[in-house]
Amino acid sequence: MKFAVIQFPGSNCDQDCVAGINGLDGLHAEYVWHKETSLDDFDAIVLPGGFAYGDYLRCGAIARFSPVMKAVISDARAGKLVLGTCNGFQILCEAGLLPGALVRNRSLRFVCDMVITRVEVDASPFTHGCPKGTLLRLPVAHGEGCFFADPETLRDLNANQQIILRYSDAQGRIVPDANPNGVNPIWLKTPAAPIVGTLMEKVTIDIEQILAAFHVLQERVEHVVVEGTGGWLVPIRSDYFVSDLAAAMKLPVLVVAQNRLGCLNHAALTVRSVAACELQCVGLVLNSTEMASDIAALTNADILKRTLNVPVLAGLGENLTELPVDWRLMLDSTREH
Fold first, then answer.
1. Residue ranges of the domains in the chain?
2. How far apart are alpha carbons 203 and 320 in whole angstroms?
3. Which residues contact 172 (CB under 8 A, 6 or more apart)?
4. Residue 261's pLDDT is what?
5. I need a surface site. Which of 26, 94, 136, 247 has the fewest CB within 10 A?
6. CATH number, span 208-332
7. What does the pLDDT read at residue 19?
8. Are 41 and 68 in contact (CB under 8 A)?
9. Are 142 and 105 in contact (CB under 8 A)?
10. Region of residue 231 (phi > 0: left; psi between -120 and 50: alpha; otherwise: beta)
């Protein structure tokens, strides 16, 4: 069986691929430059890792237009085996041969490590010799290794048995901290409150899954900012609110309010609710203070400063060149957390 290993400008795993394939009985691999237009002489195709031309725009976005990709696409659709590793995986996504996209690792750092994966499908051409549940120890080295797709695509991939391997721990358990790229446990595309989006998209909210992903992220980076979009008492599900999630995460809270009529009531209720959850409220941001025109907007900040025991901050606005002193003081107060 003859393999074509495609070389792009910047490929750096091509020699590994050729050496690995040629080390197996009955297999033979050759390099093919990305400007070639035919792959008719080959039985299978490998797109190796590395840094393909144009990665600084978006990984694989320019490489997918290389002349050889027309042959890769047509041969793949005709049933020829195609394997993309690392940057090659990104190129296949950009070419539309694979769904979804690969984005920056949640840590925003390059990951180079040995990982454990669990075989999920044992009937694919690449895993037919591995019984389902087999644990494989494999190397990874990437900065954009976090696979992203909408819920419908993920459901289809699982239903069609297209997830061949999953990251796992040494016991074969699929847990968040086994994934070196970071975890996006739940993603909703409906522009509505979470409880509405989950009902419309038939998604179940698993709080433990969210918290596990949060703690994994917390261990890998210095700072974590969690945005509670929609409000402090917005329900995530019928028995769980944004405030409950914040309490479980034990993070300091920065309250943001719109500076207009009704702001006093909403801001005071939120700040007191934060205190009732035994969390630190590090400040209250009033947006649109520079546009204040009515009596409520002109007096809100002063009243809140006198009635609430928290710093009241102005919105940052646009074209900011230096962080205001009150914001720096607020951030300093969170360091111990």
1. 1-98, 103-182, 208-332
2. 39
3. 118, 133, 135
4. 87
5. 26
6. 3.40.50.300
7. 95
8. no
9. yes
10. left
